[in-house]
Design a protein that fits this description.
The complex is a heterodimer of chains A (310) and B (109). Helices cover 24% and strands 24% of the residues of chain A. Chain A has 310 residues and is of the alpha+beta class. Chain A folds into three domains: 104 residues, DnaJ domain (Helix Hairpins, Orthogonal Bundle); 78 residues, HSP40/DNAj peptide-binding domain (Sandwich), CATH 2.60.260; 97 residues, Urease metallochaperone UreE, N-terminal domain (HSP40/DNAj peptide-binding domain), CATH 2.60.260. In chain A, the strands form four sheets. A four-stranded mixed beta sheet of chain A has the order 6-7-11-10. Chain A has a three-stranded mixed beta sheet with strand order 1-5-4. In chain A, strands 2-3 form a two-stranded antiparallel sheet. Chain A is elongated, with a radius of gyration of 30 Å. Chain B is mainly alpha-helical and 109 residues long. Chain B has four helices and four strands. Chain B has a two-stranded antiparallel sheet. In chain B, helix 1 crosses helix 2 and helix 3 crosses helix 4. Chain B starts with 7 loop residues before the first strand and ends with a helix. The chains are: A alpha+beta (310), B mainly alpha (109). Chains A and B meet through helix 2, strand 3, strand 4, strand 5 and strand 6 of A and strand 1, strand 2, helix 3 and helix 4 of B. Strand 4 of chain A pairs antiparallel with strand 2 of chain B, so a sheet runs across the interface.
Chain lengths: 310, 109
């Protein structure tokens, strides 16, 4: 297993005061808390910071950790000292997260979680949260997705081991960004006969090239030609359910928003599709096209900047 | 043990799901009193007037779990938790808005 430099993780020196450690932890906890942070790897960083704090905040655990000496490098191969090791001592944990701390932590302080020995009270397993990245199309049609989670499992010896688990999860149609799916009993196993925790999957959409969800509604930019805008037209619009005909009223300008009711993500009521019009001009790259533009200028004299007073 | 037996069907925590007071406390791994305090502080908005009648939507379940995690991990008091939850809700809504607007602006660029 790898040695963990808890001082380095919290960014404090080895002679830092307990106040310094508390301050450093608070700051990092705010920065990396998975409910607050948008940093990549926030979850893993937060766990690491929590683990470092669990050791350094407690003078007894800190002393045991310091006793390993300062000659270790972060990530260096570590084997717990033989014989009268720390694992024979009894440490108390302030957080239930202790059950999911690193092997390095367990080798020093035991990995049985917060329940001290001699207190065989059944305890419910921890809930787990994982992010589930899906395509917008999966949210529209519903889908089954396979995902791997690194789940702690309780071995027969009472020690916690992390093991990858593969789950097939049904995604119901109509889920939206950030929504959670609860899978009862699929979290961490319970302790001493307690029930297992739940697994919460948080939906995260892969970016779609042109359909942009906001809740159940879908936004789309729709390019149209100047003559479609001026004269009106019926054009084909892509939606999640397939192409739909949209009537462009005559005299439409860029920025106009049209709504296709019920063409968003399914639900009760379903979301709508909002179509934002963008007029695109054809390139004047032939003599014929240039002549056509000049004729248009003559036929339709107008100042698009009249509102600007110039 | 790497082959999943069958498809797992979860429950989407949206506005259609509702749980009672006690169920919510269980879901959050916390006790009734903590949930009661979150309601009193205005963090949670159940339907129904008396605790026995309270119904919490899936949205509220998520808010409750988030509030309790923040409270525990960052050592926040109740008022601080309420403020953090309100601001985080607002940030979520603004982020969704920005994502949609940015995507629309990208057009033609």
């Amino acid at each position: 297993m790898e040695y963990k430099d808890y001082y380095k993780i919290l960014g404090v020196s080895r002679d830092a005061s307990q106040d310094d450690i508390k301050r450093a932890f608070r700051k990092l906890a705010r920065k990396y808390h998975p409910d607050v942070s948008k940093e990549p790897n926030a979850e893993a960083r937060f766990k690491e910071v929590n683990e470092a704090n669990e050791v350094l905040r407690d003078p007894e655990k800190r002393a045991a950790y310091d006793a390993l000496g300062s000659g270790w490098q972060s990530g260096q191969e570590f084997r717990p000292p033989p014989g009268e090791g720390f694992s024979h001592r009894e440490f108390r944990f302030s957080t239930e997260d202790a059950a999911e701390f690193s092997d390095f932590f367990s080798s020093l302080f035991g990995g049985r979680g917060a329940a001290p020995r001699g207190e065989p009270r059944p305890r419910r397993g921890r809930d787990q949260t994982a992010r589930l990245r899906i395509r917008l199309e999966d949210a529209f049609h519903g889908a089954t997705r396979q995902l791997q989670i690194d789940a702690p499992e309780l071995g027969p010896d009472g020690q916690v081991a992390r093991r990858p688990r593969t789950l097939n999860v049904r995604i119901p149609a109509g889920v939206t960004q950030g929504q959670q799916i609860r899978l009862a009993g699929q979290g961490s196993p319970g302790v001493k006969g307690g029930t297992a925790g739940d697994l919460f999957l948080e939906i995260d959409f892969e970016p779609h090239p042109f359909l942009h969800p906001e809740g159940k509604n879908i936004h789309l930019n729709l390019p149209i030609s100047p003559w479609e805008a001026a004269l009106g037209a019926t054009v084909s619009v892509p939606t999640l359910g397939g192409p739909v005909s949209l009537k462009i009223p005559p005299g439409t300008q860029t920025g106009r928003r049209l709504r296709l009711k019920g063409r968003g993500l399914p639900g009760d009521p379903p979301g709508d599709a909002y179509i934002q019009i963008e007029i695109v001009t054809p390139p004047a790259d032939t003599e014929e096209a240039k002549a056509a533009y000049r004729r248009l200028a003559e036929a339709c004299p107008f100042n698009p900047r009249a509102k600007l007073g110039v | 043990m790497n082959t999943p037996a069958s498809d797992l069907e979860g429950v989407v925590l949206d506005e259609r799901v509702t749980v009672t007071f006690t169920e919510l406390a269980q879901l959050c791994g916390s006790d009734d009193e903590v949930v009661r305090l979150l309601v009193a502080e205005g963090v949670l908005h159940p339907l129904g007037s008396r605790p026995e009648e309270w119904r919490f939507s899936g949205i509220e379940i998520r808010r409750a779990r988030r509030a309790l995690r923040l409270q525990r991990d960052l050592d926040l008091n109740l008022a601080g938790t309420a403020l953090a939850i309100d601001l985080l809700d607002e940030v979520d809504a603004l982020r969704a808005r920005i994502r949609a607007l940015e995507a629309l602006l990208e057009f033609g660029a």
